[in-house]
Amino acid sequence: MSTVDLSDRFVFDDPKYLQLAVDNAERYAKGNPFPHIHLDNFLPPDVAEAVLAEFPKPADIDWHNYNRQTEIKLVCADETQFGPVTRQLFYQFHSIPFLQFLEKLTGIDNLIPDPLLRGGGLHQIRRGGLLKLHADFNKHDSTFLDRRINVLLYLNKDWKEEYGGYLELWDKDTKFCGDKILPVFNRLAIFTTTSDSFHGHPDPLNCPEDMTRKSLALYYYTNGRPKGEADGIHTTIFKSRPEESFSGVMWRLGQDFAPPVLWRTARRVRERYFRRTIQKRG
């Protein structure tokens, strides 16, 4: 059992975080292909260790299992299934001190957290899993606020480059990858979210069977956004890389042009295939 107690310990009250934001604001703004940064050893070591110790295995809790061509991953946004340290940490990621840190770092004022954790929470990906390049939904489905910032805390000890799982950041036309971030332990990745901020880890994970890619995901909003970023309301937009297979392109064309009854049948067949694949992995 963890000896860490965050009920009366406020991690982000430490003035070092605001100074960290000031020191890195220019680096964030100059991120290529869109504003972003990663910060190593972000949490106090004992807090990061406690959150990792609580992180549930694939069979431990009721995960939402995404098994489709564009994403194979586990997600849990139900805080009642989080460990006590993890739950308190999420509350602190939603606190005024952390919002002030984000605003100072990103230059985006009046950020609003999302305690509903739409699309966020605990993320876990097993060997063979992936998340194809995409731009995230741009409006919250309950509050109708504008999504502006993604925050990802990685919890992967002894993670090797050959395991893959890099967070890849691509230009708006998905012609080149501007940066790749390895998801190593206690590394925080932050980036500005627009309809053109394509990201993901599009290649299947190559870690050992007994390892997974673990992260906490949080998203931040504003009431309105710059006119130049307004692009209607959309859900997640997936895009192909230049080297994506012809079969993948044809599958997406099928969504647009095939009769609905054929598309529904094909989707059921595909989902059964992925379900069997995941079950075989354990």
TrEMBL record:
The lineage of its organism: Bacteria, Pseudomonadati, Pseudomonadota, Betaproteobacteria, Burkholderiales. It comes from the Bacteria. It comes from Hydrogenophaga pseudoflava. PANTHER family: HISTONE ACETYLTRANSFERASE COMPLEX, PROLYL 3-HYDROXYLASE OGFOD1. It holds the Pfam family 2OG-FeII_Oxy_3. Residues 122-221 form the Prolyl 4-hydroxylase alpha subunit Fe(2+) 2OG dioxygenase domain. This is Prolyl 4-hydroxylase alpha subunit Fe(2+) 2OG dioxygenase domain-containing protein. InterPro entries: Pro_4_hyd_alph_FE2OG_OXY, uS12_prolyl_hydroxylase.
